[in-house]
Design a protein that fits this description.
The protein has 6 helices and 21 strands. The chain is of the alpha+beta class and 358 residues long. The chain is elongated and about 80 Å long. It folds into 2 domains: 108 residues, Rossmann fold; 185 residues, Glycosyl hydrolase domain, family 43 (Tachylectin-2, Chain A, 5 Propeller). It starts with 6 loop residues before the first helix and ends in a 6-residue tail after the last helix. Helix 1 packs parallel to helix 4. 16% of the residues lie in helices and 37% in strands.
Length: 358
């Protein structure tokens, strides 16, 4: 395990220990989900431990190695029972706190570099087994643990299934799709949910025909069509980027939602409130505290693959990069019928001929 990865945890423990009683540890996942843990949780008394923690401590016997001991709450509880415990943690700040709190034997080391023992019991609470990261990592840990525990000894640990969630937004599949309105390429955005990714149920919104993101107001870049949504999960809910069409041109817009059904547009800096003009077929990823977008940029006679970065405010973008090696000519093979070709220009010719009355 890399020591640097644990520095925020050690700093948080120090902050609480030295008087910042309202301090919290913020845990953010790659999918945007965020959790907050009050630091007081790591400084509980033995009487405040959970049922799982108490059950594990009751099963400890003989000499004990407390792996990932943190602030030392489990080691202190075991000392109070008269048991011999060695508290091990990779974080030097955590080790200092444990010594200050009265833990008798403290070792600051990576578990894989530790060669002490052997012990009667290896204790690993607080979901610390997550440090192994993979099944191969788990096997490596068990192989090393076998050198630290006596024959007939035991390993006590708890774990957490990160795929389990009580949040209803995380308990289903979500789909936002382009719903064709009367003519091809005149769309509104709809929404559906599924428990298995195969059988879907449409969830009606408040727009025409149940759309969750209807056409924009007159004069906006999306007053005639909203289509091709790209949605990501954020800690507040969802963010959507989509293609909008006004009858004279198109662009990419942005909207936010807490439930995936009710959306609020975020005005961009381009004409009509767009974030980008002349962009469609987009994909968005959150990276490095920004959003990075790949999209098709429409020129007069060709389509280019382009790239842009959008700041967290969503209203400004960098200039699009249009490398010539990604250039895609107007006509290209039809993947559904090898004997024909498709022309993107045909799509926009139809859209330009359409209006709200279609």
């Amino acid at each position: 395990m890399i020591v640097r990865a644990m520095e925020p945890y050690g700093a948080a423990l120090q902050a609480y220990y030295h008087g910042r009683r309202g301090a919290e540890l913020i845990v953010r996942r790659d999918d945007g989900q965020e959790g907050r843990i009050p630091l007081k949780y790591f400084f509980r008394d033995a009487s405040d431990l959970t049922a799982i923690e108490k059950a594990a401590l009751d099963r400890c016997s003989g000499s004990i190695l407390d792996i990932g001991a943190g602030s030392g709450i489990h080691s202190l509880a075991l000392q109070q029972k008269g048991l011999a415990v060695t508290a091990l943690d990779i974080n030097p700040q955590a080790a200092d706190i444990m010594r200050s709190q009265g833990v008798k034997t403290v070792v600051c080391s990576d578990i894989f570099a530790f060669t002490g023992g052997p012990f009667d019991t290896l204790l690993l609470l607080g979901h610390g087994i997550g440090m192994v990261q993979t099944m191969d990592g788990l096997q490596r840990f068990l192989n090393h643990a076998g050198t630290l525990v006596k024959p007939g000894g035991r390993i006590l640990l708890d774990s957490l299934d990160v795929t389990v969630s009580r949040d209803p937004l995380n308990l289903t599949y979500h789909m936002w799709y382009s719903h064709v309105i009367i003519q091809p390429f005149i769309f509104r955005i709809g929404y559906a949910r599924s428990s298995d990714g195969i059988h879907w149920t449409k969830v009606p919104g408040e727009g025409v025909d149940g759309a969750v993101l209807d056409w924009g107001h007159a004069g906006s870049f999306d007053e005639l069509s909203t289509a091709w949504p790209a949605v990501i999960k954020t800690k507040e809910g969802f963010m959507m980027w989509y293609f909008g069409y006004s009858g004279s041109g198109g662009g990419t817009g942005c909207a936010v939602s807490s439930d995936g059904i009710h959306w609020n547009r975020v005005a961009g800096g381009e004409p009509g409130g767009a974030c980008l003009v002349g962009a469609l077929g987009l994909s968005v990823l959150p990276m490095d505290d920004q959003f990075k977008m790949w999209y098709a940029h429409i020129d007069e006679d060709r389509i280019n693959l382009a790239f842009s970065q959008i700041n967290t405010g969503l209203t400004t973008t960098t200039a699009a990069v249009r490398p010539e090696q990604f250039s895609l000519e107007q006509n290209y093979p039809n993947p559904f019928n090898a004997e024909t070709t498709m022309a993107e220009k045909d799509v926009f010719d139809q859209m330009r001929k359409s209006d709200r009355g279609c």
